[in-house]
Specification:
single chain, about 400 residues, mainly alpha, 3-stranded antiparallel sheet, two-stranded antiparallel ribbon
């Protein structure tokens, strides 16, 4: 799989993550020899079929982990190539460039520094593992994989035709393609498709490589229930729609459209913040004294990190396109996109930095406390754990984990 790359902010986000930094040139991504079939999809193209959006490159070798075929694969030189980027990658570049040219505005951006680092931080995690306390880290990795699997729900939200909701022409935009392959590609990346594994299964593999198959299925169910992810079908679109009714903020918008935008914003912020998780996971699991597998788990995380870049890019590109257009309400009234997107962006950001952050920390802390309650030096280790923390953490019971299920779908 090649040597591990050090985690640096310069390739945390953005299309350059898989258009150069990982060893693949921009020219290679438009090279028909690398693409399934013979269609040449250059960056000037603005309209794509669903098949083109979902197209893979021609891999020299598939990615197989523990006997399971995963998405993505390797080029002739051994470079990992993300799934479904033969058309998606040049499309995103083209839509972004076209928007800048037509509207004279840049693409929405939320710097990763907006969010605090991973909890537990690297030193806290190392403290636990050096003292034989593995369960909280195993729980965290299991939680991440499960949350990734919920990403499949987004495929149910985007209509095939977005044009009725906007006054201006949507042809040649990411927004036009949300229901024509973009959200489906996202869903397949996260939850897998047919007999090919996606990020959910890949994170479980990360856990199993690093800690040598540490949990049974029953233990996994119990673990997730403790962290607020059990007992409800969180990937059920009908249930999600019912929950959304009680908290609508834009009642004149089509409800499905408002739910789509709300989900896009929440997922965008989860995806950006997740790069703290990737940095933490890669550093922690590359340490052969703390994790098994001789760095294989960390390498697998680096592949997942690379795969997430198109998600960030299509979400922020489409939200930008909506911001700079005019919405049409169900009453026929027209609304500036900056008003709709601005209001929903601010609300979602507030929720991400407060409620979701608190819930995530409370879920992990409860696992730490449970594990240390059984350790002979548990009290002292818990004190040291808190002393190594980056920010104050509420005492047990401050946060109710029995809340809206969509709010626990972060990490």
């Amino acid at each position: 799989m090649g040597p591990l790359k050090s985690y640096t902010p310069k390739y945390t986000l953005g299309l350059d993550l898989y258009l150069g930094v990982q060893g693949t040139s921009r020219a290679a991504w438009s090279n028909p020899a690398m693409t399934e079939g013979e269609n040449h999809m250059g960056t000037a193209q603005l309209e794509y079929t669903t098949d083109e959006i979902l197209a893979d490159h021609r891999f020299a070798e598939p990615l197989v982990v523990g006997g399971v075929v995963c998405h993505g694969g390797f080029a002739d030189d051994g470079t990992y190539v993300s799934p479904r980027t033969a058309g998606r990658a040049p499309a995103l570049l083209a839509w972004q460039a076209n928007h800048r040219e037509v509207f004279g505005k840049d693409i929405l951006h939320a710097p990763i520094e907006t969010w605090p680092g991973n909890y537990p931080n690297l030193e806290q995690a190392r403290l636990l593992l050096r003292n034989g306390v593995r369960d909280p880290i195993i729980s965290a990795l299991t939680r991440i994989g499960t949350v990734e699997g919920f990403g499949a729900m987004i495929r149910y939200l985007a209509p095939a035709d977005m044009q009725p909701f906007f006054e201006e022409d949507l042809r040649g935009t990411a927004t036009q393609h949300l229901g024509l392959g973009l959200v489906e590609a996202h869903a397949r990346d996260e939850a897998g498709f047919e007999d090919v594994a996606g990020h959910m299964q890949m994170w479980y593999a990360v856990r199993d490589i690093a800690f040598e198959n540490p949990v049974t299925q029953d233990e996994t169910v119990n673990m997730l229930e403790r962290m607020g992810i059990g007992g409800v079908n969180m990937a059920d679109p009908a249930s999600a729609r019912e929950r959304f009714l009680a908290r609508r903020a834009q009642p004149d918008l089509d409800m499905g459209l408002e739910m789509l935008i709300s989900t896009m914003l929440r997922v965008l912020f989860v995806e950006i913040k997740a790069h703290h998780v990737f940095a933490w996971s890669e550093d922690l699991l590359a340490d052969s004294e703390l994790a098994a597998g001789e760095g294989e788990a960390a390498r697998l995380v680096s592949f997942i990190r690379q795969d997430e870049a198109p998600h960030v890019e299509y979400l922020r590109t489409s939200l930008t396109e909506m911001r700079d257009r005019t919405f049409i309400g169900t009453s026929g009234k027209k609304y500036p996109g900056s008003e709709i997107i601005g209001t929903m962006w601010d609300q979602s950001m507030k929720e991400s930095l407060s409620t979701m952050e608190d819930l995530n920390r409370a879920a992990i802390l409860s696992e730490v406390e449970l594990a240390l309650s059984k350790h002979p030096k548990g009290k002292d280790l818990l004190a040291e754990f808190h002393a190594l923390g980056d920010a104050p953490v509420g005492v047990p019971g401050d946060v109710d984990l029995d809340v809206r299920p969509e709010l626990v779908t972060g990490y």
